[in-house]
């Protein structure tokens, strides 16, 4: 049976917004993610001044951490509250502007210019809007997208990656019959088939 029990589960944008409103954000890590620290060298691969993408970024503290190292960070998140909390919690001044190509979307950009966070659906983004990236930190993104959207998500991510891009992916392992997700269970064979 396996992941079959999850394949039809859909979490709406509204439900994600409510999680932020209610502070039901157990997925947020205040101290940053130990796996990013552990595998940072793999992501950077000796390179400096990279463009790094955070899909479904929430208010991930690693965005500030990488920006402080001299990288340029771009994130996308449906919850404007999450993005505003990110800037507030790091005392970062920012400005807000509309994104002409995406109806209703906003871009919140740190005044220093090295952190740009898009408030919209990730599926509204394209490389013509955000450019391409040297690195992707996918922690809680692939496992959070609805299982029926995985292929669409991965094909979008592929179009956002430069040729020698590094993609760090964190997944979760558990018995999908016991939890309905998110985070959803994405077995290794499926990751291999998705990313080829």
Number of strands: 7
The rough form would be described as globular
Radius of gyration equals 16 Å
Question: Would you identify the CATH architecture?
Answer: 3-Layer(aba) Sandwich
Summed up, the domain count is: 1
Let me know the average pLDDT.
96
- The number of helical segments is 7
Order of helices and strands: HHEHEHEEEHEHEH
Taken as a percent bin, the fraction of beta residues is 15-25%
Question: How does the major sheet shape up?
Answer: 7 strands, mixed
Mind telling me the CATH class?
Alpha Beta
DSSP helix fraction: 25-40%
| CATH superfamily membership | Vaccinia Virus protein VP39
- In CATH, the topology is named Rossmann fold
Terminal Cα span: 24 Å
Q: Taking strands numbered 1, 2, ... along the chain, how are they ordered across the largest sheet?
A: 3-4-5-2-1-6-7
Instruction: Please state the structural category.
Output: alpha/beta
Stretches with pLDDT under 50, minimum 5 residues:
none
Binding site for S-adenosyl-L-methionine: 16-27, 56, 77, 121-122, 139
Subcellular location: Cytoplasm
Family: Belongs to the class I-like SAM-binding methyltransferase superfamily. TPMT family.
EC number: 2.1.1.67
